[in-house]
Write a structure and sequence with these properties.
The protein has 268 residues and is of the alpha/beta class. Helix content is 38%, strand content 22%.
Length: 268
């Protein structure tokens, strides 16, 4: 799989390769969506990769949508918080985290949350499946908000809109073209697709994002998308960055279990 990415990267147009500050290394992880099994293997692979490289300040950025759709959102949140106690980890809020937060007070938002993967999230907190199936919507909302610990709400509420390091911009969905980065709206950062995806110009920084699923990382001259469909395709992707170097690490579900693949960027 990743051999194809190596070829695509070699053809990616760029007048100047984006860079991180000297001594900085970053791993950004795409949408996990409740796939704790893939997340655990990717954590192992990132720690192994980081230990094998030269000394640098190493930062992990999770690009949002840790929850919903997959089977163990509560486990992903717990593991992410544990990892952040062990190393430097930053979190970006995705549209699915936003939906959960809004669902606390708005019944219509809770209905949408359930429709787009939230049912799996509340089940991961130990709610009775029969009750989830049979309960009236307002009754289910009250029970779900009681089942999710306040600490998890506080954790998600603290996720960031955007992170900028060197020439890179890390965001969940993307940014609105022709709008300065400091003026970007949170809603766009968490939800946008067009006109972001088709824009060929500058954004004010090279964007690393998730949100829009592709079978392999989508490499463009102004952005890289790394939502490879953990819940849909069984493939969770991280991008590694240092200086002007880029490489990918994937945890992939197969008939033989979960395998890990690593590929470096080929020379342009």
């Amino acid at each position: 799989m990743l051999a194809k990415i190596r070829n695509l990267l070699g053809r990616a147009p760029s007048a100047r390769l984006p860079q991180l500050p000297i001594g900085q290394r970053i791993y950004a992880i795409g949408d996990i969506h409740g796939r704790l099994d893939l997340f655990e293997r990717l954590i192992e692979a990132i720690e192994r990769d980081d230990a094998q490289r030269n000394s640098a300040h190493s930062l992990v950025i999770l690009l949002g949508d840790l929850i919903d759709r997959g089977p163990d959102s509560s486990g992903v949140l717990a593991r992410a918080r544990q990892w952040a106690r062990e190393r430097d980890v930053e979190f970006i809020q995705g549209n699915h985290e936003e939906m959960l937060l809004v669902s606390r007070d708005k019944l219509d938002a809770f209905r949408s949350f359930l429709k787009f993967g939230g049912r799996e999230t509340i089940l991961s907190y130990g709610m009775d499946p029969q009750f989830v199936m049979d309960a009236e919507l307002d009754e289910l909302q009250r029970a779900a908000m009681e089942a999710i610990p306040q600490d998890d709400f506080d954790f998600i509420d603290g996720f960031q809109k955007m992170i900028r390091v060197g020439d890179y911009v890390f965001v969940h969905a993307g940014v609105r073209p022709e709008t300065p980065l400091e003026n970007q709206l949170g809603h766009d950062c968490r939800w946008i697709r067009e006109p972001f995806l088709s824009h060929n110009g500058e954004f004010g920084g090279f964007v690393i994002h998730g949100h829009t699923i592709t079978q392999e990382p989508e490499i463009r001259g102004n952005r890289v998308g790394i939502d490879t469909g953990a819940y849909m395709h069984g493939r969770l992707t991280a991008i590694g960055l240092q200086g002007s170097e880029r490489w990918f690490i994937q945890a992939c579900e197969s008939e033989d279990g979960i395998t890990v693949q690593v590929a470096a960027e080929a020379p342009a």
